[in-house]
Amino acid sequence: MADKKTDKPKKTGGRADTGLKVRVKTARGRTASSQRWLERQLNDPYVVKARKEGWRSRAAFKIIEIDEKHRLLKPGARVVDLGAAPGGWSQVAAKKVGSKPDRVLVVGIDYLDLDPIPGVTLLKKDFLDEDAPAALMAELGGHAPDVVLSDMAAPTTGHHKTDYLRTMHLCEVAAAFAVDVLAPGGSFVAKVFRGGTENEVLAMLKQHFATVAHVKPPSSRQESVELYLVARGFKGRKAAGEGDGESAEREDDGLS
User: Fold this and answer.
1) Cα-flanking dihedrals φ and ψ of residue 69, to 5°?
2) Active site residue: 191, 206, 216, 238, which one?
3) Residue pair 70/209 in contact by the 8 Å Cβ criterion
4) Closest Cα partner for 44 from 64, 13, 74, 22?
5) Collapsing DSSP states into helix, strand and coil, what is residue 100?
6) Who's near 217: CB < 8 A, 6+ residues apart?
7) Catalytic residue at 191?
8) Distance CA 58, CA 49 (A)
9) Predicted structure pTM score
């Protein structure tokens, strides 16, 4: 009996695989690294599936998979998407929470140009700018967001320690913003890189959230050093030093 057709990428060894490999002819002027990137893109089932389903990038599946497990994006929730380009996470968030042009619940920010997304307000601004947090909150009408998402990563240099430190700085700034603005019970998701120390940001998140988890979604490439921090159950803001003596539950999702 023939296999039933499915839109889902077939999986081999825990990763999606179409079973077919596309070879790209070497072109004059194309470097070996760009050749490898092009072949990887053409053979990546998540890239194909993203195009088919209308997502801006394969990264959309990362937040889809994170949300399927942790149930962060609930109908009616307000969402801030930091480092929104090319827009896949904002697209997913708008669909999940029911954001519409006449009732916008999702605000994204990036210094790169972004094509409009229905139900999403997009700010062309560097999140590290001093006035960026206030601009985001103004677009939400002063309402506290229920979810802060950050897929921000600094442009890679090829030097692992430098790349790690620069991306962790973005995570720390995003985490501080989340703690400043989230509604009680809210959630925070941010990209980090494996292979360094993140004790300070983890300690801060565990102080302010009920649970903190490291997540490696299936669509994240196996060779990638990226992980995601998922913090849920924001406890609300307290005066400095007014701890409750409890630390957040740590979930490790089986990751080292």
Assistant:
1) -85, -40
2) 191
3) no
4) 22
5) strand
6) 61, 62, 65, 66, 228
7) yes
8) 8
9) 0.78
Number of domains observed in the structure of the chain: 2
Residue 41 lies in a domain: yes
Taking the C-alpha atoms of residue 219 and residue 14, their distance in angstroms, rounded to an integer, is 10
- Percent of the chain as helix, strand, coil, to the nearest 5: 30, 20, 50
Q: Residues 79, 149: contact at Cβ < 8 Å?
A: yes
Q: 138 and 213: one domain? A: yes
Show the tokens assigned to 161.
């320690």
Chain centroid to Cα 8, Å, comes to: 21
SS3 109: strand
Q: Distances from the Cα of 213 to the Cαs of 30, 67, 181, 230, 251, in angstroms?
A: 41, 13, 21, 5, 4
Backbone angles phi, psi at 214, to 5 degrees: -95, 130
* Tokens at 41, concatenated: 């893109």
Q: Which domain holds residue 41?
A: 24-53
Helix (H) or strand (E) holding 177: helix 160-181
Instruction: Encode the chain (256 residues) as per-residue pLDDT tens digits.
Output: 444 444 444 443 344 444 445 454 454 555 655 555 455 555 678 888 888 988 988 999 999 999 999 999 999 999 999 999 999 999 999 999 999 999 999 999 999 999 999 999 999 999 999 999 999 999 999 999 999 999 998 877 778 788 888 889 999 999 999 999 999 999 999 998 876 557 889 999 999 999 999 999 999 887 788 899 999 999 998 733 444 444 455 455 543 3
Task: Give the end of a domain, one of 34, 53, 72.
Answer: 53
